[in-house]
Each structure stands twice: as C-alpha cells, then as structure tokens.
C-alpha cells in the first residue's frame, strides 16, 4: 500500500522574478520560508531540520527565472518528495509563482502522513508568499523548538488559540507575551487544522502540529535571535506542561 501524491499551489506575489529565484534556489533564501537550514550546492538541495539531515534532493531543472525543480532519490520503500517551481513575470514587479510538491508515501498509514504533509506544505507556500510580499531580499534566521508530548491535540490547539486571544483567522491581529521577550503583535497570515502563521514587522511566527507528537514553533526571525530559542522553549513548556 501507499500513495502517490501531488499538491499544486500558486500565488501572485509583489516581488520580481529575480527575488523569487533567489528565494527558491539559494540556501539563505530557502531558510527564510521553508524549514531548518538549507544549502544549494553541487546540483543538490540539502536540508537540516531538528538535528537531522533530510534526504538529499537532486536538482533536475534549472532554467533561471523560470523553472527550478529538485527531487529526492526514492528510498527502499519507494518514499520520495519532489518540489517544482514555475515562475512567470508579470507587470509592475510582480511574479506568478507555482509550486508543485509531489512524491510517494509508503505503508498502510500513509493517510496520517499525507494529512500532515498537506497541512505543512500549505503553510510553507503561504510563508513563501508572505516572505516575498513583505521581506523579499532579506535573510531570516530559522528558530525551531518543540514543546512537551501532546496527548490530546484538540485540547492542545485550544490552549494555543486561547494564548492568541481566541481561534485566529487570517487577517486577525493577535498578541503573545513570551516571558523574557518583548510582546509579539502581528497579523495572522495563514491557518489550517495543523498550523498557524503570524507576521510581524521583523518575523514570521509559525506554530505547527508535529508528526512526532509535540507542538513546534518554526519561526523565521529577521531581527536579533539572541535568547529567543530558550524563551520560546520555556513558553511551550508553560503552555503545555499540564494541559496537553
């Protein structure tokens, strides 16, 4: 058993093809909207996330300002993920960006993984769009922390939504006060059943239901990251220590 999948997404962004190209074909660019630390070198894209190296993804299309694609080599069980980007320049410095995520998920439990992948992919693309519309050309520092194990996800999400002032909807203004950090006030740019994204003037804050059974923060910081990892880890521990 298993499933082949394809997730197409597209958006018109207020960024030039050159800015989009930098965001999808360079390590610092990918760092600023995807996950973990990335490098593009020797015809491959490599991603390190949460202390692990993800399977190397080989570049198989590289047409500057138009088409970029890379794919992991299928594993023994057939598992792989591929990414394809198509760019079309529009007037007044805008670009139509299409991203297609495809691959194969093996096993009888592929549905759970596909649900999580679909939710995460939607967040990543929304973050790419938000990055290009508001931070194009700037480099972000990725910050990833996880909270305590979660036994009840609906309850865990209610706790997070309460911390944000209620179930957030795109366009809402929300405020958080992590101990040891200035108050965070921003606009919700994305939400689905497993993720929330918030934009401020110097960060893209993301909250993600981790496949490993913990709530993750996967923030992208355009300001000073010093001390923020410990502060967000403490915030997650306080939020979920007795309620998750």
TrEMBL record:
The record's section on InterPro entries has:
START-like_dom_sf
> Would you say which domain of life the source belongs to?
Bacteria
Q: What is this protein called?
A: SRPBCC domain-containing protein
